[in-house]
Amino acid sequence: MSLEMKKENAAEIVTNPERKTRKGVFWPAFLVVGGGAFLGIVNNKMLADISMNGFIGSLRGLGWLYQIISIVALVIVALVTFSKLGKVRLGGEDAKPKYPFGAWFAMALTGGIATGVITYGVNEPIIYFSNIYGEMERTGVEPGTPLAAIYAMGRSFYNWTFIPYAMYSLSGLVVAYMYFNRKKSLSVTATLIPLFGDKVTKGIWTSIIDTLSVLAIALGLASSLGAGLALVGSGIEATYGIQQGPVVWLVLTLIITGTFTLSSLKGLDKGIRILSDVNAKVFYVILIALIIIGPTLYIFRTSTAGLGYWLQNFWQWGLDPIDIGGEALVMWWTLYDWAIWIAYAPLMGIFLAVISHGRTIREFMIVNWILPSVFSIIWFGIWGGTALHWQQNNVVDLAGTIKESGAVAGLWSFLGHLPLGAVIIPVVMITLILSFSTAADSMVRTIATLCTVNIRHDEEPASWKKLLWALSIGIIAFVMVAFAGGAQGVDGVKYLAALGGSSVLFIFVLQVISAIKMFFIDKVEK
Fold first, then answer.
1. Which one is predicted more confidently, 83 or 434?
2. What is the reported pLDDT for 13?
3. Average pLDDT of the chain?
4. Best exposed site among 99, 104, 263, 315 by fewest CB in 10 Å?
5. What angle is formed at CA 155 by the lines to CA 153 and CA 161, rounded to 5 degrees?
6. At what angle do helices 44-82 and 162-176 cross, to 10 degrees?
7. Is the pLDDT assigned to residue 461 strictly greater than 70?
8. How far apart are CA 367 and CA 277, in angstroms?
9. Exposure of 207 in the CB half-sphere (CA atoms within 13 A)
10. 348: domain CATH number?
């Protein structure tokens, strides 16, 4: 960037008054989120039924589209990464990165990981292995066998690695490229300019597209926090005998919401970056501890075999709309996961773009696609491998715990049987809080950004907007858990969030097509 441009940008930031609110995005999104919370209080069953029926209908009818577009996104990301396009620098040839590699990767990893890998690193492989909900019935694999363990590992790798992170990376790349290289607005709508021209950023369409994106992520965060409250509460009850209930959930809500709210208010550099760095280091320490404690050879062998099984079945799993593997496996795991990842993708893409100025496209993909995928392989290999070994050798009946107490109950039983479990359990509880907070603070900032007119990537949105969205998400989660059926109370918002992903699906499809046109048809702006 030239000296003149730097002076011009600095002058704009200093002299520009507080950005105005995008009323066409802020108010519809805020009213729908509030309305969902209100309906959850008044009639939680109605909210759960409406959202679940809509969600199931969308997956049954659009499962084929989810699978095709996910594979297409993966192919595009791979082509862009390993072709000469990878040399293109976001922001132009003279742009310089703001963040060192370690800090950048920590923000990218923890900003999108939430609590998923902790929650399901143990539970998901055990559920497959033991056929707890009928997942293995149409696979031809006998549950409880050594082959079932390899299948469980391979399927977990498939659901948590290169395909879902390709979704995040593709959305982030089109946002970054349009904003930094094409000089368009920092919004979801701007990513569709290659298809529809600048007219798509004017009128009602820009409000509809960005509102749907805000709704999907806001409801997704609320459901994730609600599930996190129930999960941590169950861990406190199982470990310390303190029965979970409204008081425990309120305390947890205050701690978690306070953490990510403060981080978001501190801004990208003083809040989000520091919290992400701490969270990432805790992840690394936990992995090192478990690989030392665990059945190391079994972990390496089962992970390697799982990778082979995954690659052998890649196309069948990738193009199965439900008809091969059945609903219990494909719809309630893979397609549900794809709906949630796609719901997060457009706004996660904005966050990934903001922190990636000055990086080449290849660097962007290494940090946002390849390394997080490798991290998930290592995580599921270690956590899942240890759990499968224990289950097969009768160290602890994790499958029985899950059957008795629910799909995420195996985690605390697993941790309780680790050496130094009394130390590791509170560390994992803190990690769950940090994991959600590092996802929420980045997304609260991004929601506030999208609700602001013509904001730059290096400007912070108004604090009151970040505070309002943070508190809204915390309140919805607490109300749904405490007053609408405990752990089951999050179902209404949970399915509504996934249904939001179905709405965002069509925006994501357009982003994929837009990426094809930008990078393989139009002239690439360096």
1. 83
2. 33
3. 88
4. 315
5. 95
6. 80
7. yes
8. 15
9. 11
10. 1.20.1740
**Which domain, by its residues, includes 505?**
19-520
Give domain status of residue 8, yes or no.
no
**Does residue 5 form part of some domain?**
no
**105 falls in which pLDDT band (50, 70, 90)?**
very high
With contact defined as beta carbons under 8 Å apart, do 228 and 249 qualify? Answer: no
Give the pLDDT confidence of 15-43 residue by residue, as tens digits. 234 578 999 999 998 888 777 667 766 77
| Phi, psi of 461, deg, nearest 5 | -65, 165
Taking 60 as the threshold, does the pLDDT of residue 302 lie above it?
yes
- DSSP states along 310-365: HHHTHHHHHT-SSTTT-IIIIIIIIIHHHHHHHHHHHHHHHHHHHTTTT-BHHHHH
Q: Do the beta carbons of residue 498 and residue 62 sit within 8 Å?
A: no
Neighbours of 61 (CB within 10 A): 11
Residue 9 is assigned to a structural domain of this protein? no
Q: Determine the pLDDT at residue 481.
A: 76
Whole-number pLDDT of residue 485: 53
Task: Report if residue 296 sits inside a domain.
Answer: yes
Residues 6+ positions from 334 with CB-CB distance below 8 Å: 158, 159, 317
Which candidate, 276, 271, 260, 233, places its Cα nearest to that of 102? 276
Contact 385, 303 (CB under 8 A): yes
E strand or H helix at 269: none
Q: Which residue reads 């607490």 in tokens?
A: 478
What average pLDDT does this structure show over 372-385? 97
DSSP secondary structure code for residue 490 in this structure = G
Count of domains for the chain = 1
Q: What are 434's two structure tokens?
A: 């940090």
Residue 251 has pLDDT above 80, yes or no: yes
Task: Give the tokens for residue 444.
Answer: 């609260």
